[in-house]
Amino acid sequence: VAQERLAQQLRVAEIENQELKNDLGFFERLLPAAGDAGPAIRALQVEDTGEGRLRYQLLVMQPGKAPAEFNGRYDLTLVGLRAGQPWSELAAGAPWPLKLRQYRRVDGVIAIPGDVVLQSVQVRLLDQRGTVRATQTAAP
């Protein structure tokens, strides 16, 4: 009985250890890399809600203690299959304005055409001149 309890405690500890490693990896990816200049997309999560809608969360960060304010915009490009053919489209309403000094979390919900099988979503961060400053892709 004691051996079974110890084995169960070991399994629980291994699961908790793996969860902590996953959390650590996530937070390490959020840290700005040395030498980065300007805003960077540190996280993008997308979830197909199954109702013809896509929920997304985006984290944008700038390195440094007192970076200049970034005033730009972002857009989302949906990529998938429509009627068995490759398809991509800029999300309706894009681009959206984005201002930040150090970091900003952005949440949103966008519509997906009902006959599309979504494969990935790409976010682009653009400055005021329209220059792409950062991109990141995620799968739902």
Briefly, what is this?
This protein has 140 residues and is of the alpha+beta class.
Distance between the termini: 44 Å
Model regions low in confidence, pLDDT < 50 over at least 5 residues = none
H and E order:
HEEEEEEEE
Number of helices: 1
Query: Strand share of the residues?
Result: over 45%
Average pLDDT confidence is 89
Principal-axis shape: flat
Largest sheet: 5 strands, antiparallel
Helix fraction by DSSP (H/I, runs of at least 4): 10-25%
From the alpha carbons, calculate the radius of gyration and give it in angstroms. 20 Å
The quaternary structure here is single chain
User: Structural class from helices and strands?
Assistant: alpha+beta
Q: What's the β-strand tally?
A: 8
Can you characterise this structure?
By secondary structure, the protein is of the alpha+beta class. It has one helix and eight strands, in the order H-E-E-E-E-E-E-E-E. It has one helix at 2-30, and strands at residues 40-48, 53-61, 70-82, 85-90, 96-100, 103-111, 116-126, 132-138. Strands 3, 4, 5, 7 and 8 form a five-stranded antiparallel beta sheet that branches. It has a three-stranded antiparallel beta sheet with strand order 1-2-6, with no helix packed on it. Strand 1 and strand 2 form a beta hairpin. The radius of gyration is 20 Å and the shape is flat. The relative contact order is 0.20.
Main attributes of the structure:
single chain, 140 residues, alpha+beta, 1 helix, flat
Topology diagram in text:
Layout: H1 2-30, E1 40-48, E2 53-61, E3 70-82, E4 85-90, E5 96-100, E6 103-111, E7 116-126, E8 132-138
Antiparallel strand pairs: 1-2, 2-6, 3-4, 3-5, 3-7, 7-8
